[in-house]
Predict the 3D structure of the following.
Amino acid sequence: MSTFEQLGLSPETLQAIYKLGFEEPTPIQKKAIPLALQGVDLIGQAPTGTGKTAAFGLPIIERIEPDSDQIQGLVVVPTRELAIQVAEELNKIGEFKRVRTLPIYGGQDMTRQIKLLKKRPQIVVGTPGRLMDHMRRRTIRLQNISIVVLDEADEMLNMGFVEDIKYILSDLPENRQTLLFSASITKAVENMSQHF
């Protein structure tokens, strides 16, 4: 049986996950976390409800420089509900490392989001359309992204976001780490992973 300690997480991150009541890593966490901590690109397949958010969230929190006021991590998700949910979990996981995550999504007041972006979160979780809105307005800067996650990749493809994802990723540094998570690995998801 492996434990969170054996995955190589910092004391602050371990403190946060035990506070959240996590006891032992799920199969996707055992496989993804050590690889993601090494900085390699990866594709993770696991059904919803198996701890995927922590599987990518824990490595993101570990890789962030909490003293920096730059956005260093980006999570792209298909829906507003998922943006809120993932950001809440990342804020809890990042509590003791003082890493701040901001969700940005359509349907929320743009002026409010711009004000929140000025507070310098280190991680942004966003839906493709709203991320592109901010990119076009230059209210979000992505040149310091070191790690990007495409969450629910199969859903994003089903919803027709492939061109949006290409647009977003084309603005990120080439030497970033890319993690792709999906409930199913379809041919379209495979093609997208080859492309990115």
Observations:
- Residues 80-93 form the longest helix (14 residues).
- The radius of gyration is 16 Å.
- The longest strand covers residues 177-182.
